[in-house]
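Design a sequence for this backbone.
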Protein backbone atom coordinates (compact mmCIF):
# COMPACT_ATOMS: atom_id res chain seq x y z
CA UNK A 1 0.00 0.00 0.00
CA UNK A 2 1.30 3.49 -0.72
CA UNK A 3 0.37 7.17 -0.58
CA UNK A 4 1.94 10.62 -0.54
CA UNK A 5 1.25 11.63 3.09
CA UNK A 6 0.62 9.01 5.78
CA UNK A 7 -1.39 10.57 8.60
CA UNK A 8 -1.53 8.95 12.04
CA UNK A 9 -4.71 9.98 13.88
CA UNK A 10 -8.18 10.95 12.65
CA UNK A 11 -8.91 13.72 15.15
CA UNK A 12 -9.39 17.34 14.04
CA UNK A 13 -5.70 17.79 13.10
CA UNK A 14 -5.43 14.71 10.88
CA UNK A 15 -8.81 15.23 9.21
CA UNK A 16 -8.40 18.92 8.47
CA UNK A 17 -4.83 18.47 7.25
CA UNK A 18 -5.96 15.72 4.85
CA UNK A 19 -8.68 17.99 3.43
CA UNK A 20 -6.32 20.95 2.96
CA UNK A 21 -3.87 18.69 1.10
CA UNK A 22 -6.58 17.08 -1.00
CA UNK A 23 -7.75 20.44 -2.32
CA UNK A 24 -4.29 20.74 -3.92
CA UNK A 25 -4.55 17.19 -5.30
CA UNK A 26 -2.30 15.59 -2.64
CA UNK A 27 -3.25 12.06 -1.59
CA UNK A 28 -3.22 10.82 1.99
CA UNK A 29 -4.14 7.82 4.12
CA UNK A 30 -5.38 8.39 7.67
CA UNK A 31 -4.78 5.62 10.23
CA UNK A 32 -7.19 6.00 13.17
CA UNK A 33 -7.05 3.65 16.15
CA UNK A 34 -10.72 4.07 17.11
CA UNK A 35 -14.07 3.92 15.29
CA UNK A 36 -15.67 7.02 13.76
CA UNK A 37 -18.41 6.95 16.42
CA UNK A 38 -15.86 6.91 19.24
CA UNK A 39 -13.88 9.87 17.85
CA UNK A 40 -17.03 11.93 17.20
CA UNK A 41 -18.41 11.38 20.68
CA UNK A 42 -15.43 12.77 22.61
CA UNK A 43 -16.59 15.97 24.31
CA UNK A 44 -13.71 18.40 24.17
CA UNK A 45 -13.17 21.94 22.93
CA UNK A 46 -15.94 24.43 22.27
CA UNK A 47 -14.43 27.75 21.16
CA UNK A 48 -12.98 28.44 17.72
CA UNK A 49 -10.64 31.33 16.95
CA UNK A 50 -10.67 33.08 13.59
CA UNK A 51 -7.67 31.00 12.40
CA UNK A 52 -9.55 27.70 12.90
CA UNK A 53 -12.73 29.15 11.37
CA UNK A 54 -10.74 30.24 8.30
CA UNK A 55 -9.18 26.78 7.95
CA UNK A 56 -12.60 25.09 8.05
CA UNK A 57 -13.73 27.46 5.28
CA UNK A 58 -10.55 26.84 3.27
CA UNK A 59 -11.10 23.07 3.69
CA UNK A 60 -14.66 23.55 2.35
CA UNK A 61 -16.31 22.05 5.43
CA UNK A 62 -17.74 25.20 6.99
CA UNK A 63 -21.35 25.22 5.78
CA UNK A 64 -22.96 23.97 9.02
CA UNK A 65 -20.45 25.82 11.22
CA UNK A 66 -21.29 29.10 9.47
CA UNK A 67 -25.00 28.40 9.93
CA UNK A 68 -25.07 27.09 13.50
CA UNK A 69 -21.94 28.53 15.18
CA UNK A 70 -22.56 31.34 17.69
CA UNK A 71 -20.29 34.34 17.24
CA UNK A 72 -19.15 35.98 20.50
CA UNK A 73 -17.74 39.49 20.87
CA UNK A 74 -16.65 39.27 24.50
CA UNK A 75 -16.13 37.22 27.66
CA UNK A 76 -16.96 37.91 31.30
CA UNK A 77 -14.58 37.56 34.25
CA UNK A 78 -16.01 37.35 37.76
CA UNK A 79 -13.98 37.79 40.96
CA UNK A 80 -14.56 39.19 44.44
CA UNK A 81 -18.32 39.54 43.75
CA UNK A 82 -17.58 41.63 40.62
CA UNK A 83 -18.67 40.94 37.04
CA UNK A 84 -16.41 42.50 34.38
CA UNK A 85 -16.84 42.18 30.61
CA UNK A 86 -13.90 42.16 28.21
CA UNK A 87 -15.08 43.55 24.90
CA UNK A 88 -12.76 41.56 22.65
CA UNK A 89 -14.21 42.86 19.43
CA UNK A 90 -13.66 46.50 20.39
CA UNK A 91 -10.23 45.91 21.93
CA UNK A 92 -8.84 43.93 18.97
CA UNK A 93 -10.22 45.95 16.08
CA UNK A 94 -13.03 43.53 15.20
CA UNK A 95 -11.84 40.03 16.14
CA UNK A 96 -14.40 37.56 17.51
CA UNK A 97 -14.59 33.87 18.46
CA UNK A 98 -17.20 31.23 17.65
CA UNK A 99 -18.95 28.68 19.86
CA UNK A 100 -18.98 25.42 17.84
CA UNK A 101 -18.24 22.11 19.53
CA UNK A 102 -15.35 19.87 18.55
CA UNK A 103 -17.89 17.04 18.25
CA UNK A 104 -19.74 18.94 15.48
CA UNK A 105 -16.56 20.06 13.75
CA UNK A 106 -15.29 16.46 13.73
CA UNK A 107 -18.58 15.20 12.22
CA UNK A 108 -18.39 17.82 9.46
CA UNK A 109 -14.78 16.86 8.71
CA UNK A 110 -15.59 13.11 8.56
CA UNK A 111 -18.56 13.77 6.26
CA UNK A 112 -16.23 15.53 3.80
CA UNK A 113 -13.17 13.29 4.20
CA UNK A 114 -15.09 10.02 3.67
CA UNK A 115 -16.42 11.35 0.33
CA UNK A 116 -13.01 12.63 -0.80
CA UNK A 117 -11.30 10.52 -3.49
CA UNK A 118 -7.83 11.72 -2.43
CA UNK A 119 -8.27 10.47 1.15
CA UNK A 120 -8.49 6.93 2.54
CA UNK A 121 -9.42 6.46 6.20
CA UNK A 122 -8.60 3.19 7.95
CA UNK A 123 -10.46 2.92 11.27
CA UNK A 124 -9.40 0.56 14.05
CA UNK A 125 -5.82 0.53 12.77
CA UNK A 126 -3.87 -1.15 15.59
CA UNK A 127 -0.18 -1.07 16.58
CA UNK A 128 0.71 1.76 14.20
CA UNK A 129 4.48 1.95 13.98
CA UNK A 130 6.34 4.70 12.04
CA UNK A 131 9.64 3.50 10.51
CA UNK A 132 12.58 4.89 8.49
CA UNK A 133 11.43 8.51 8.76
CA UNK A 134 14.76 10.02 9.81
CA UNK A 135 16.13 9.69 6.29
CA UNK A 136 14.66 8.38 3.08
CA UNK A 137 11.19 7.06 2.46
CA UNK A 138 9.15 6.40 5.58
CA UNK A 139 6.85 3.49 6.21
CA UNK A 140 3.88 3.02 8.54
CA UNK A 141 3.35 -0.53 9.76
CA UNK A 142 -0.03 -1.35 11.29
CA UNK A 143 -2.50 -4.15 11.91
CA UNK A 144 -6.02 -4.12 10.45
CA UNK A 145 -8.46 -6.97 11.10
CA UNK A 146 -5.57 -9.12 12.25
CA UNK A 147 -3.50 -8.52 9.06
CA UNK A 148 -0.11 -6.78 9.15
CA UNK A 149 0.02 -3.98 6.55
CA UNK A 150 2.88 -1.70 5.42
CA UNK A 151 2.05 1.78 4.10
CA UNK A 152 4.85 3.48 2.10
CA UNK A 153 4.70 7.27 1.97
CA UNK A 154 6.76 10.39 1.23
CA UNK A 155 5.97 12.01 4.59
CA UNK A 156 4.36 11.12 7.90
CA UNK A 157 2.13 13.59 9.76
CA UNK A 158 1.86 12.61 13.44
CA UNK A 159 -1.63 13.88 14.34
CA UNK A 160 -2.24 11.24 16.99
CA UNK A 161 -2.62 13.31 20.15
CA UNK A 162 -0.72 13.26 23.43
CA UNK A 163 -0.70 9.44 23.82
CA UNK A 164 0.07 8.67 20.16
CA UNK A 165 2.68 6.53 18.40
CA UNK A 166 4.47 9.25 16.41
CA UNK A 167 6.23 11.13 19.22
CA UNK A 168 6.87 7.85 21.05
CA UNK A 169 8.82 6.50 18.04
CA UNK A 170 11.41 9.32 18.03
CA UNK A 171 14.82 8.30 19.45
CA UNK A 172 15.01 9.87 22.95
CA UNK A 173 18.25 11.76 22.27
CA UNK A 174 16.64 13.73 19.42
CA UNK A 175 13.73 15.21 21.36
CA UNK A 176 13.33 17.63 24.25
CA UNK A 177 10.06 17.63 26.20
CA UNK A 178 8.99 20.46 28.52
CA UNK A 179 6.19 19.63 30.94
CA UNK A 180 4.28 21.12 33.86
CA UNK A 181 1.45 19.24 35.58
CA UNK A 182 -0.97 21.42 37.55
CA UNK A 183 -2.19 20.33 41.01
CA UNK A 184 -5.87 20.20 39.93
CA UNK A 185 -8.19 19.13 37.11
CA UNK A 186 -11.43 20.30 35.50
CA UNK A 187 -14.70 18.49 36.09
CA UNK A 188 -16.95 19.17 33.06
CA UNK A 189 -20.72 18.77 32.82
CA UNK A 190 -22.80 18.95 29.63
CA UNK A 191 -26.57 19.52 29.90
CA UNK A 192 -29.55 20.43 27.75
CA UNK A 193 -30.24 23.63 29.66
CA UNK A 194 -30.04 27.21 28.37
CA UNK A 195 -26.65 28.87 29.12
CA UNK A 196 -26.70 31.03 32.26
CA UNK A 197 -25.34 33.99 30.25
CA UNK A 198 -25.09 34.84 26.55
CA UNK A 199 -21.26 35.05 26.80
CA UNK A 200 -18.75 32.77 28.57
CA UNK A 201 -18.09 33.44 32.26
CA UNK A 202 -14.63 32.70 33.73
CA UNK A 203 -14.95 32.78 37.54
CA UNK A 204 -12.13 33.26 40.04
CA UNK A 205 -13.44 32.20 43.46
CA UNK A 206 -11.82 31.37 46.76
CA UNK A 207 -13.37 27.87 46.54
CA UNK A 208 -11.74 27.39 43.12
CA UNK A 209 -12.21 28.28 39.43
CA UNK A 210 -15.45 27.78 37.48
CA UNK A 211 -16.34 28.27 33.81
CA UNK A 212 -19.78 28.73 32.26
CA UNK A 213 -19.60 27.77 28.59
CA UNK A 214 -22.12 26.58 26.04
CA UNK A 215 -22.64 24.66 22.82
CA UNK A 216 -25.88 26.31 21.64
CA UNK A 217 -28.79 28.37 22.97
CA UNK A 218 -30.17 25.21 24.58
CA UNK A 219 -27.02 23.28 25.54
CA UNK A 220 -24.56 24.31 28.26
CA UNK A 221 -21.09 23.17 29.25
CA UNK A 222 -19.88 24.00 32.76
CA UNK A 223 -16.55 23.28 34.44
CA UNK A 224 -15.35 23.24 38.06
CA UNK A 225 -11.76 23.16 39.27
CA UNK A 226 -11.40 19.97 41.36
CA UNK A 227 -8.56 18.23 43.20
CA UNK A 228 -6.52 15.60 41.34
CA UNK A 229 -7.83 12.91 43.69
CA UNK A 230 -11.50 13.63 42.88
CA UNK A 231 -13.58 10.96 41.09
CA UNK A 232 -16.51 11.64 38.74
CA UNK A 233 -18.62 9.05 40.63
CA UNK A 234 -18.42 11.24 43.74
CA UNK A 235 -20.01 14.17 41.90
CA UNK A 236 -23.78 13.77 41.59
CA UNK A 237 -25.44 16.34 39.34
CA UNK A 238 -26.90 17.99 42.45
CA UNK A 239 -23.47 18.33 44.05
CA UNK A 240 -22.06 19.83 40.83
CA UNK A 241 -24.81 22.45 40.50
CA UNK A 242 -24.59 23.44 44.18
CA UNK A 243 -20.84 23.92 43.96
CA UNK A 244 -21.12 25.89 40.72
CA UNK A 245 -23.65 28.28 42.29
CA UNK A 246 -21.28 28.91 45.20
CA UNK A 247 -18.50 29.98 42.80
CA UNK A 248 -20.62 32.49 40.83
CA UNK A 249 -21.78 35.95 41.94
CA UNK A 250 -25.25 35.68 43.55
CA UNK A 251 -27.18 37.44 40.80
CA UNK A 252 -25.74 35.03 38.19
CA UNK A 253 -26.19 31.92 40.37
CA UNK A 254 -29.86 32.90 40.80
CA UNK A 255 -30.37 32.67 37.02
CA UNK A 256 -28.68 29.26 36.60
CA UNK A 257 -31.01 26.66 35.06
CA UNK A 258 -30.01 23.16 36.17
CA UNK A 259 -30.91 19.79 34.70
CA UNK A 260 -29.66 16.23 34.25
CA UNK A 261 -26.13 15.82 32.90
CA UNK A 262 -25.56 14.32 29.44
CA UNK A 263 -21.88 13.79 30.21
CA UNK A 264 -19.49 14.38 33.11
CA UNK A 265 -15.72 13.88 33.02
CA UNK A 266 -12.51 15.06 34.67
CA UNK A 267 -9.54 16.31 32.62
CA UNK A 268 -6.10 16.87 34.15
CA UNK A 269 -4.33 20.15 33.35
CA UNK A 270 -0.86 20.23 31.87
CA UNK A 271 1.49 22.37 29.82
CA UNK A 272 3.63 20.27 27.48
CA UNK A 273 5.84 21.12 24.49
CA UNK A 274 8.01 18.91 22.27
CA UNK A 275 11.01 20.39 20.49
CA UNK A 276 11.55 20.12 17.58
CA UNK A 277 8.31 19.27 15.76
CA UNK A 278 10.09 17.71 12.74
CA UNK A 279 12.12 14.51 12.68
CA UNK A 280 13.39 13.87 9.15
CA UNK A 281 10.30 13.19 7.08
CA UNK A 282 7.93 12.98 10.07
CA UNK A 283 6.14 16.11 11.34
CA UNK A 284 4.20 16.40 14.60
CA UNK A 285 0.91 18.32 14.57
CA UNK A 286 -1.49 19.42 17.35
CA UNK A 287 -1.74 17.55 20.65
CA UNK A 288 0.95 15.09 19.51
CA UNK A 289 3.42 17.96 19.96
CA UNK A 290 1.89 20.19 22.62
CA UNK A 291 -0.78 20.43 25.33
CA UNK A 292 -1.98 23.56 27.11
CA UNK A 293 -4.25 23.84 30.16
CA UNK A 294 -7.76 24.56 28.83
CA UNK A 295 -8.26 27.95 30.53
CA UNK A 296 -7.59 30.01 27.40
CA UNK A 297 -9.51 27.61 25.08
CA UNK A 298 -6.34 27.21 23.03
CA UNK A 299 -5.84 23.42 22.51
CA UNK A 300 -7.69 22.97 19.24
CA UNK A 301 -6.88 26.48 18.06
CA UNK A 302 -3.19 25.80 18.44
CA UNK A 303 -3.50 22.67 16.34
CA UNK A 304 -4.94 24.99 13.64
CA UNK A 305 -1.70 26.90 13.08
CA UNK A 306 0.27 23.63 12.84
CA UNK A 307 -2.19 22.33 10.20
CA UNK A 308 -1.94 25.60 8.31
CA UNK A 309 1.87 25.68 8.31
CA UNK A 310 2.30 22.00 7.46
CA UNK A 311 -0.30 21.99 4.68
CA UNK A 312 1.23 25.15 3.17
CA UNK A 313 4.71 23.59 3.31
CA UNK A 314 3.63 20.25 1.81
CA UNK A 315 1.68 22.00 -0.96
CA UNK A 316 4.82 24.06 -1.79
CA UNK A 317 6.81 20.80 -1.91
CA UNK A 318 4.43 18.99 -4.25
CA UNK A 319 3.30 21.84 -6.49
CA UNK A 320 6.44 24.03 -6.69
CA UNK A 321 9.23 21.62 -5.70
CA UNK A 322 10.19 23.96 -2.82
CA UNK A 323 11.33 22.57 0.56
CA UNK A 324 12.19 25.84 2.32
CA UNK A 325 8.82 25.89 4.11
CA UNK A 326 9.18 22.28 5.28
CA UNK A 327 12.56 23.35 6.71
CA UNK A 328 10.91 26.28 8.56
CA UNK A 329 7.89 24.29 9.84
CA UNK A 330 9.15 23.38 13.30
CA UNK A 331 10.59 26.77 14.20
CA UNK A 332 7.58 28.70 12.88
CA UNK A 333 4.99 26.45 14.54
CA UNK A 334 6.85 26.47 17.87
CA UNK A 335 6.87 30.26 18.05
CA UNK A 336 3.06 30.39 18.17
CA UNK A 337 2.97 27.30 20.41
CA UNK A 338 5.09 28.99 23.08
CA UNK A 339 2.98 32.15 22.89
CA UNK A 340 -0.17 30.08 23.58
CA UNK A 341 1.59 28.06 26.29
CA UNK A 342 2.51 31.31 28.00
CA UNK A 343 -0.98 32.78 27.81
CA UNK A 344 -2.70 29.55 28.93
CA UNK A 345 -0.30 29.21 31.87
CA UNK A 346 -0.77 32.85 32.89
CA UNK A 347 -4.57 32.86 32.57
CA UNK A 348 -4.66 29.58 34.52
CA UNK A 349 -2.46 31.08 37.23
CA UNK A 350 -4.63 34.16 37.84
CA UNK A 351 -7.96 32.28 37.79
CA UNK A 352 -7.35 29.06 39.83
CA UNK A 353 -6.83 28.27 43.49
CA UNK A 354 -3.33 26.81 43.88
CA UNK A 355 -3.23 26.41 47.69
CA UNK A 356 -4.92 27.49 50.93
CA UNK A 357 -2.62 30.45 51.59
CA UNK A 358 -4.99 33.49 51.59
CA UNK A 359 -2.24 35.83 50.33
CA UNK A 360 -2.33 34.01 46.95
CA UNK A 361 -5.99 34.86 46.44
CA UNK A 362 -5.49 38.48 47.54
CA UNK A 363 -2.66 38.88 45.00
CA UNK A 364 -4.83 37.37 42.22
CA UNK A 365 -7.63 39.81 43.10
CA UNK A 366 -5.19 42.72 42.97
CA UNK A 367 -3.96 41.61 39.54
CA UNK A 368 -7.51 41.20 38.21
CA UNK A 369 -8.45 44.60 39.65
CA UNK A 370 -5.45 46.15 37.89
CA UNK A 371 -6.15 44.40 34.57
CA UNK A 372 -9.80 45.47 34.53
CA UNK A 373 -8.87 49.07 35.32
CA UNK A 374 -6.40 49.26 32.45
CA UNK A 375 -7.17 49.27 28.73
CA UNK A 376 -3.70 47.79 28.14
CA UNK A 377 -4.47 44.98 30.60
CA UNK A 378 -7.81 44.17 29.01
CA UNK A 379 -6.27 44.34 25.54
CA UNK A 380 -3.62 41.78 26.54
CA UNK A 381 -6.34 39.30 27.49
CA UNK A 382 -8.47 40.10 24.43
CA UNK A 383 -5.61 39.81 21.89
CA UNK A 384 -4.50 36.45 23.24
CA UNK A 385 -8.02 35.08 23.71
CA UNK A 386 -9.10 35.76 20.11
CA UNK A 387 -5.83 34.17 18.97
CA UNK A 388 -2.47 35.49 17.86
CA UNK A 389 -1.99 35.73 14.07
CA UNK A 390 -0.33 33.06 11.93
CA UNK A 391 3.09 34.11 10.57
CA UNK A 392 2.26 36.05 7.37
CA UNK A 393 5.76 35.45 5.92
CA UNK A 394 5.13 31.68 5.79
CA UNK A 395 4.17 31.32 2.13
P1 LIG B 1 -6.78 14.45 19.16
O1 LIG B 1 -8.10 15.10 19.15
O2 LIG B 1 -6.28 13.84 20.44
O3 LIG B 1 -6.81 13.34 18.03
C1 LIG B 1 -5.83 12.34 17.92
C2 LIG B 1 -6.42 11.13 17.21
O4 LIG B 1 -5.39 10.17 17.07
C3 LIG B 1 -7.53 10.48 18.04
O5 LIG B 1 -8.66 10.27 17.23
C4 LIG B 1 -6.92 9.16 18.51
O6 LIG B 1 -7.87 8.12 18.62
C5 LIG B 1 -5.90 8.89 17.41
N1 LIG B 1 -4.75 8.09 17.87
C6 LIG B 1 -4.06 8.19 19.03
N2 LIG B 1 -3.07 7.29 19.08
C7 LIG B 1 -3.12 6.62 17.91
C8 LIG B 1 -2.34 5.57 17.37
N3 LIG B 1 -1.31 5.04 18.06
N4 LIG B 1 -2.65 5.10 16.15
C9 LIG B 1 -3.70 5.62 15.45
N5 LIG B 1 -4.47 6.63 15.91
C10 LIG B 1 -4.18 7.12 17.14
N6 LIG B 1 -9.28 22.15 24.04
C11 LIG B 1 -9.95 23.26 24.18
O7 LIG B 1 -9.65 24.22 23.45
N7 LIG B 1 -11.00 23.34 25.07
C12 LIG B 1 -11.37 22.26 25.85
O8 LIG B 1 -12.31 22.32 26.62
C13 LIG B 1 -10.66 21.08 25.75
N8 LIG B 1 -10.98 19.98 26.49
C14 LIG B 1 -10.22 18.85 26.36
C15 LIG B 1 -10.52 17.74 27.14
C16 LIG B 1 -9.73 16.56 27.04
C17 LIG B 1 -10.06 15.36 27.91
C18 LIG B 1 -8.66 16.53 26.13
C19 LIG B 1 -7.80 15.28 26.00
C20 LIG B 1 -8.39 17.65 25.34
C21 LIG B 1 -9.16 18.81 25.45
N9 LIG B 1 -8.91 19.95 24.67
C22 LIG B 1 -9.61 21.07 24.80
C23 LIG B 1 -7.89 19.97 23.69
C24 LIG B 1 -8.44 19.74 22.28
O9 LIG B 1 -9.53 18.87 22.33
C25 LIG B 1 -7.29 19.19 21.49
O10 LIG B 1 -6.31 20.22 21.41
C26 LIG B 1 -7.66 18.70 20.11
O11 LIG B 1 -8.47 17.55 20.21
C27 LIG B 1 -6.39 18.37 19.33
O12 LIG B 1 -6.71 17.68 18.18
P2 LIG B 1 -5.70 16.60 17.59
O13 LIG B 1 -6.35 16.12 16.34
O14 LIG B 1 -4.33 17.18 17.53
O15 LIG B 1 -5.63 15.45 18.68
C1 LIG C 1 -14.68 25.51 26.69
C2 LIG C 1 -13.50 25.00 27.15
C3 LIG C 1 -12.50 25.86 27.52
O1 LIG C 1 -11.34 25.39 27.94
C4 LIG C 1 -12.65 27.23 27.46
O2 LIG C 1 -11.65 28.03 27.87
C5 LIG C 1 -13.81 27.72 26.98
C6 LIG C 1 -14.83 26.86 26.60
C7 LIG C 1 -15.77 24.60 26.30
O3 LIG C 1 -15.59 23.38 26.37
O4 LIG C 1 -16.83 25.09 25.95
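Sequence:
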Amino acid sequence: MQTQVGIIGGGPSGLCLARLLSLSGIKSVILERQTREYVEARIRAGILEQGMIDLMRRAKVSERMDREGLVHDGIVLTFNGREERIDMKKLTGGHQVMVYGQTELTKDLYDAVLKDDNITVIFEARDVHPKDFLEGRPQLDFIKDGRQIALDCDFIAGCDGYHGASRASVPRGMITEYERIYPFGWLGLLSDTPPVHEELIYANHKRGFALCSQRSHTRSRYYLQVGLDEKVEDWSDERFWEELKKRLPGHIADKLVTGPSLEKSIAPLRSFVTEPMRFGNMFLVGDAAHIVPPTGAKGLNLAASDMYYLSTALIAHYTEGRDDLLDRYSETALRRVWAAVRFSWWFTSIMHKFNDDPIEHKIQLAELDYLMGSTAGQTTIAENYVGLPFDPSFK
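The chain has 13 helices and 20 strands.
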